[in-house]
Amino acid sequence: MAQLFFRYGAMNSGKSIEILKVAHNYEEQNKRVILMTSALDDRAGVGMIASRIGFERTAIPVKHETDLFETIRETDPHAACVLIDEAQFLQKHHIFEAARVVDELHIPVMAFGLKNDFRNELFEGSKYLLLYADKIEEMKTICWFCAKKAIMNLRIHDGKPVYEGEQVLIGGNESYYPVCRHHYFHPPLDKIEHQD
Ligand SMILES: [Zn+2]
């Protein structure tokens, strides 16, 4: 039975490398996969899934107006699996379309992304994945500052933590850190490198 999966984790929890690994496992068995990623994240180029350890693949960029269901049906209605990176940036309609891919095309969809934004609110894509996914799984990573599990994402701008502002700001003078709850509110700023 095809299912809609949501695998979430804080920054640097290895989501992109996991996607590339899953894709590789399918393809090794001569099964076709469809790779997709939000067009909003252009750090590695639009339509690229890049892992921090250096592997990268091209992917179908998902824009605001993209209809996931139609795109997948036109691309490969018999694909073995759809893998979506940066799913936090998807919109409500994308999640509904992904659910239709599972229920009507019977293709499993695995969406990977952040759950909490830097203000510690849910991203839209993550909210609807949490509500509509058949299976939800946490990808664990540890706090940047201690050995606890990181459950939040800290935004640092000019060496200072930021808790308000636009939810999505890519390519600015910002850096993000996976953190535990305590260090989200009390980051040891002397351990953060100035990146400008
Ligand atoms: Zn910590």
From TrEMBL:
The UniProt catalytic activity note for this protein reads:
thymidine + ATP = dTMP + ADP + H(+)
- Which positions are catalytic residues? 86 (proton acceptor)
The terms describing its cellular component in GO are: cytosol
What keywords are assigned to this protein?
Answer: ATP-binding, Cytoplasm, DNA synthesis, Kinase, Metal-binding, Nucleotide-binding, Transferase, Zinc
- Report if keyword Secreted is assigned: no
Pfam families, A to Z: TK
**BP GO annotations:** DNA biosynthetic process; thymidine metabolic process
Q: Which residues bind ATP?
A: 9-16, 85-88
- Where does it live in the cell? Cytoplasm
**Chain sites annotated for binding substrate:** 168-171, 176
**What PROSITE patterns is this protein classified in?**
TK_CELLULAR_TYPE
Instruction: Give the domain of life.
Output: Bacteria
GO molecular function list: ATP binding; thymidine kinase activity; zinc ion binding
InterPro entries, sorted: P-loop_NTPase, Thymidine_kinase, Thymidine_kinase_CS
Q: Kind of enzyme, top EC level? A: transferase
Q: Where does Zn(2+) bind?
A: 143, 146, 180, 183
Per the record, the similarity remark reads: Belongs to the thymidine kinase family.
Quaternary structure per UniProt? Homotetramer.
Q: What is this protein called?
A: Thymidine kinase
What is the organism field in this record? Answer: Lacticaseibacillus zeae DSM 20178 = KCTC 3804
Gene of origin?
Answer: tdk
